[in-house]
Design brief:
Helix content: 10-25%
Structural class: alpha+beta
CATH class of the largest domain: Alpha Beta
Number of domains: 2
Largest sheet: 7 strands, mixed
Strand order of the largest sheet: 5-4-6-7-17-16-13
Order of helices and strands: HEEEEHEHEHEEEEEHEHEEEEEHEEEE
Radius of gyration: 20 Å
CATH architecture of the largest domain: 3-Layer(aba) Sandwich
Shape: globular
Oligomer: single chain
């Protein structure tokens, strides 16, 4: 049965890979960028976006970060995961591999099992993505936390996706050190909701997962909300980052189920490719952006920023906000 599952999932990924290559038709022309730090913390970005046969919507941005570039991306599949989640993880890898290259990233995504975790934990630049109810054995908590402290990025989607974080459903785990409770989320047409600056700037689409975490828990851990927030008796968040040592944990609500109008892996890949290409988990707090539109004609403009934090890098560029246009340019400036 297990071999049949692996064969079926591998065949699905192969079909998706061939389809995406066939439909892409090669990369579109990239926007032209000119960046300068004209004074201490004073930045200027000149850019030109080529014309297109489609309506265009872009974000031009400058973001302070303490990291530039990541290692390879690993998506963990365990026996405890539901079949639908496993399928979503395989297609998520395909989306990431095809879409990250449009942002100029050279990282590669792949599926792994728990047998490969020692390899991941030996690379402090690596990224590990775990789905809901990954439920790793308790003895993984200490080495996982140690890896993050040395620079690793752990992305946990839903409850029981980070071995050193516990919640109401797994309070008995003795080696967990951090608490983050999740609550069922009712979208309710977006009433009493708000987007964070990062979510607005990068055009996030992971709007309303079926559950979200308590913002008060995230803040108690020294974390920062970067997704959408809902007031449902208490404030809930969809995406957050928790700096730990030199690394970071990114937590996301949901169970990788299908949101309206799109499949979960498409929505996740859209947001994750931007988070990873821009090194958002190492965001200093400085962010300047504006959103531009056109009927397909070329766009030329200037973005000015004044940074107050002393981050090591400025990540700058222009990224698309719609699917019709995939032209993208992301660069880093070492301060």
């Amino acid at each position: 049965m297990r071999n049949n599952l692996v064969v079926a999932l591998t065949a699905l990924v192969a079909v998706l890979a061939v389809s995406s290559v066939a439909l892409s038709g090669g990369p579109p022309p990239r926007p032209a960028l000119s960046f300068e730090e004209v004074g201490s913390g004073q930045m200027v970005l000149d850019y030109r976006i080529p014309s297109s046969s489609h309506d265009q919507s872009y974000s031009a941005f400058m973001l302070g970060t303490n990291r530039a570039g990541d290692g390879d991306i690993y998506v963990l599949v365990t026996e405890s995961l539901d079949f639908d989640v496993k399928v979503s993880q395989y297609t998520l890898v395909d989306h990431l591999n095809n879409e990250l290259r449009f942002c100029g990233a050279s990282t590669v995504s792949s599926i792994i099992s728990t047998d490969s975790l020692p390899k991941v934990f030996s690379d402090p630049q690596a990224v590990l993505i775990c789905g809901p109810s990954t439920s790793l054995p308790d003895f993984y908590a200490a080495p996982a936390l140690n890896w993050v402290e040395k620079g690793g990025l752990w992305i946990g989607i839903g409850e029981n996706s980070v071995p050193f974080i516990y919640s109401r459903s797994n309070e008995s785990s003795p080696n967990t050190t951090m608490r983050l409770d999740f609550t069922e989320l009712s979208y309710d047409s977006g009433v009493n909701s708000r987007s964070t600056p990062i979510a607005d700037a990068l055009g996030f689409r992971y709007v309303a997962p079926d559950n979200a975490f308590e913002l008060s828990d995230l803040e108690a851990l020294g974390g920062r909300s970067i997704g959408f927030e809902y007031e449902r008796g208490s404030w809930l968040g969809t995406v957050g980052i928790i700096p730990i040592g030199q690394g970071s944990v990114m937590v996301m609500g949901g169970n990788m189920g299908p949101p309206p109008l799109s499949t979960s892996e498409e929505v996740l890949a859209w947001d994750l490719e931007k988070v990873l290409a821009l090194n958002v988990p190492w965001w200093t707090g400085d962010l300047t952006y504006h959103i531009v539109y056109s009927d397909g004609s070329a766009i030329e403009s200037v973005l000015n920023a004044s940074f107050t934090h002393s981050g090591l890098y400025v990540c700058y560029g222009v990224i698309p906000r719609n699917d019709a246009v995939q032209s993208c340019a992301v660069r880093y400036y070492a301060r």
